[in-house]
Amino acid sequence: MTRPDPAAHLPADDAPAREDTAPRLPAWLRLGVPALLVLLGSLVFGVTTATADGSLGPHEARYDVTTDGTVTLDLGPLGTLEIDSPVPLGLGARVTVREIPSGVTAVDPATTLTALSSDLQGYLQFFAGPQATLQDAVRALVTDALWRTLGALAVVTVLVALGRLLLGHARREELAAALAPQARRLVAGGTVVVVGLGVLTASTGGGAHESQPVASAVFAGTPLEGARVTGRLGGVIDTYGSYAVEAYRSNTEFYARAEQSLDEAWAERSARIEAAHAEQAAFTVPDGAPATPSSPPAADAASVAPAQGAPASRDTPEASPSPSATPTRTGDAQDAQEDDEAAEPVVLVLVTDLHCNVGMAPVIRALVELSEADVLLDGGDTTIDGTAVEQYCVTTFARAAGGVPVVVSPGNHDSRETEAAYRKAGATVLGGEVVEVAGVRILGDRDPRETRIGAGTSRSSAESPSEARERLADVACEDERVDLLLIHTPPIGDAALERGCVPAQLSGHKHVRSGPEQVGAGIRFVSASTAGAAPGQPTVGPLRSTAELTVLRFDPDEARLLDYQLVQVGTDAAVSVGPRVAWPRPAPVSAAPDELADDAAADPAS
Question: What gap in Å lies between CA 553 and CA 179, rounded to an integer?
């Protein structure tokens, strides 16, 4: 017999509550999924709305992320140039080209033609090394996207906190109970809405064209191959583009030959050193064996160790030693001997006065790799006018180091913006203090003067060149040890050398090599231009004068330079790699007459 349910006769309000059989999501899922949706939405918003200001050739430019899978170069009324974006997920960019800045150059009508010539150089520099410009733009866009993402997260977090506060605990519980059965649908729908809203907030400046533009044949074989041109720009490129492309190809081929020539010249020099190794081993005398009358292998006639304080040059004639004297070898045989006997030296590569000739970047990179350099030294004047649009020059040269530390002493053609670009690229910019890089203690600073096209030369700060000279000397004399003074303009190092507080100085500025020669109690070496800079000639394009780079070796045990080696690139793209030439030791400096008089007065017995 079935018993009746007692609860059936109770009023509805008195009936025991039935268990809620609706599925309930775990707490981590209920909290994690909305948080993930918020993060995803903020990220989509940040990426698709990112924007950055940069440069394109000599122009200022604005970069905006788009979602049309195209990189669009907007030249205003002239039209656009489009290429397929290499970025996945349909992301692209729109580059709005703006004016060529004139605030720094201050060009007047008398120099307008000169300014236009430099603009053309700027275009060639960009197309010779577009990777640096793109790297700068991508870095700026990523930074802006991260800030926008964080901003969106902050806004959503504040709104959620305010919503919870206004609803109160009881009301939140009611809403949670009511929405629990629909949790899965709400999560799926929320995902679609968040992603859709994020895409809709993206910049859509590119738009769809009424007719699909046709790829221009002018760009075949260049980084812009396949680019599509619209508007009047198409006619301009079809008419005059071949001249620019021809200049680009000539520039690219020239420096490709120079890089190959450097590889061959370096291999030849290495082979000669190896041959000297073998020849030297044949003259090795075992212990206790009688010496033979044969003489050791001769050094290169063009590379004899200089006397104390004398300039070491490849043009130095070979000395005629007395029978009792043993000549110091500094050619292939000496190179071989030093490779066997010396401790591991620190290898430095010196470049200077690059003046935005980004064509030399592959040559610099090759020399850094071949010489197994530990540090790349930049003696300044990396740019032409120190403008923001020349940042890509700095980035290109910094990348040429291939991860090797870069130390820079800014020149008179550089600026604070140049310094900031170098720091952003990871380089050490000297600022009047001693820094230690790879065991070498280096002192340097920015040039006390700045030169601007159309505006001449003026002080870069309130400090005069003579004051900068004395300040650096004071820093050097007060420091425990300074191995090297890297300064752009040679005379700025006079006081430090004369007071005997730095043993060696490396400089540029003059575009003509001099030294190493003794100045005061130290040795100064002035490098020629690594850009092949010639008077009245642009530094962009194939070289118009010989470009020079210098490989130096530093002994970390004795804290001194051992030798230097010239690498020269000719106007025909041929490269010569010189022998290692011994770095001269400074001769003792005699005391001044007034100092001798003071010493005699202090010591009556003298």
Answer: 74
Distance CA 493, CA 522 (A): 10
Q: Tokens 């903020």 label which residue?
A: 42
Local confidence band at 588 (pLDDT 50, 70, 90 cut-offs): confident
* pLDDT, tens digit (0-9, with 9 covering 90-100), for 412-454: 999 998 999 899 889 999 999 999 999 999 999 999 999 987 7
Cα 87 to Cα 211: distance, rounded to the nearest angstrom: 24
What whole-number distance in Å separates Cα of residue 577 and Cα of residue 300? 13
CA 315 to chain centre: 35
Q: How far apart are CA 265 and CA 440, in angstroms?
A: 28
Concatenated DSSP letters of 174-201: HHHHHHGGGHHHHHHHHHHHHHHHHHHT
Residue 65 makes CB contacts below 8 A (sequence gap 6+) with 47, 48, 49, 50, 51, 91, 92, 93, 141, 145, 202, 203
Q: Is the dihedral of CA 117, 118, 122, 125 positive or negative?
A: positive
Beta bridge partners of 459: 449
Reported in sequence order, the residue ranges of 161-308 that DSSP labels E, i.e. its strands, are 228-229
d(CA 244, CA 359): 16
Q: How far is CA 324 from CA 273, 320, 321, in A?
A: 27, 11, 8
User: Looking at the DSSP assignment, which residues form a beta bridge with residue 429?
Assistant: 408
With beta carbons less than 8 A apart as the criterion, state whether 346 and 556 touch: yes
Sign of the torsion angle spanned by Cα atoms 162, 167, 169, 173: negative
Residue whose token pair is 């053609």: 413
